[in-house]
Amino acid sequence: MTERYESYAGALERASAYARDWLTGLPDRPIGPRVAADALLADLAGALPAGPTDPADVVDLLAAAVEPGLMAIGSGRFFGWVMGGTLPAALAADWLVSAWDQNAGMRYSTPGVVAAEEAAGAWLLDLLGLPAGADVGFVTGATMANFTGLAAGRQQVLTDAGWDLDTLGLTGAPRVRVLAGAERHDSVDLALRYLGLGAPSLVPADDQGRIRLDALDDALAAGAGPTIVCLQAGNVHSGAFDPIGPAAALAHAHGAWVHVDGAFGLWAAASPALRGLLAGYAAADSWATDAHKTLNVPYDCGIAIVARPAPLRAALGVHASYLMPADPGPGDPFERVPEFSRRARGVPVWAALRSLGRAGVADLVDGLARNARALAAGMAGIEGARVLNDVVYTQVSVAFEDDARTRDVVARLLAGGTTWMSGSRWQARDIMRISVSNFATDDADVAASVEAVRRAAQASQNEQGRQREDTGQPDRNGQKSRAPESSTPRIAS
After folding, report:
1. What is the pLDDT of residues 382-413, one digit of tens each?
2. Close Cβ partners of 92 (under 8 Å, ≥ 6 residues apart)
3. Where is the composition biased (Polar residues) (predicted)?
4. Closest CA relative to residue 302, chosen from 258, 348, 271
């Protein structure tokens, strides 16, 4: 028996060495993957071997084959999407979660990890200023966190309308009207589709993507029946926050359930300096967030919070004779999430919160917002670049003179490898979107990233000058352009 467990040693030692190499190499590594998936398949696919392979050798093969296709998401210069890095305590806890291999669904059978998750949930409610009696569920990501909160909302508003959803299903039920801002995140639409509720009715938003209160008031008054209102804490392009408190008051006056998609923005509540962005948010009925984004724990770790446990457990809970019942009180974790069985993804959240403490979480969030402001200031100093949003949180949206130039700058930037800022489309124009999510980003990363954009913009401008010279077209000042000698684009990494 001892020999069997000693067989883990070689594989784990190799994995640890590769993990250390990966982490220590992040500061100097080009951000983007070097090899595409189809090419990687040559080493990963093929015929399944007829016999066993030593576990340590398998780790060697896997690391060698996969490494060229890895994105350096943990780099302080990765700003491509809202993806955080990984705090040391959270990473180590995640390793333990895999080694322990507990099914975190039942309180009676796996009390160790369930207790850690319950402690983390209580800390989160306190840290984020949410109702102490709320249910907290650890799900795969923000999409399923939205799904969970909206499932509870669907359950409650149909119950209020006198419909027995559990027995009768949705066929023949009163239509659930869902109102959402025009710039809600697509994960809200996806969750609604999963729930059979269809597309939301969109309420106009302002120039920063915030839902307009006057338009919401009109939309609420224009209909009746079971209603859910989806609000947003942190627009994915501008970082802006809906006026959650006043919007929730309007919705509740019409008997609606209020759900807040706070995938990365809900963490602003942990910062005394930024909490005002969320004014009135605690009056909502459910909230969704993602610890992998702002809290910097490993994938995957969404968090669903529901103020009233009854509709959540009615929507997602199940009872079977073979299940060990939880003791009276908090109930079982599987009653609060869509999954019956799952890994203990809340344990790294406990580790992250315990390692940072209240002040550390506030410093983390404040640092992300501070770096976003610094990046915006740097972008504003680049010829032709324009910051389109009010930088109130962690998002920066930048555009150049026209869509073609913006796309060209983004392509050159990504090819350079110094930093990763994704292209997107917002306010009817192509943009370069910067999402600041990593605790590891420092002043040097900000400076290097700004300089990389400057180089890409200059190379793009030089290329446009050559093209105008070749075609005899005037430049932006109305003069025929002549490209400087030796102006071949060079994008440094």
Report:
1. 999 999 999 999 999 999 999 999 999 999 99
2. 351
3. 484-493
4. 348
> Quick one: which of 354, 398, 374 has its CA closest to 76?
374
Q: Which residues, at least 6 apart from 276, have a Cβ–Cβ distance to it below 8 Å?
A: none
Beta bridge partner(s), residue 180: 202, 230
- Which residue is associated with the tokens 């949930």? 121
Q: Which residues contact 451 (CB under 8 A, 6 or more apart)?
A: 418
Terminal alpha carbon distance of the chain:
51
Phi, psi values for residue 451, rounded to 5° = -65, -35
Amino acid at 290: D
Alpha helices per DSSP H over 161-290 = 165-168, 186-194, 213-221, 244-253
H or E segment at 334? none
Residue range 87-493, CATH number: 3.40.640.10
Structure tokens belonging to residue 238: 């501008």
CB 324 within 8 A of CB 330: no
pTM for this predicted structure:
0.92
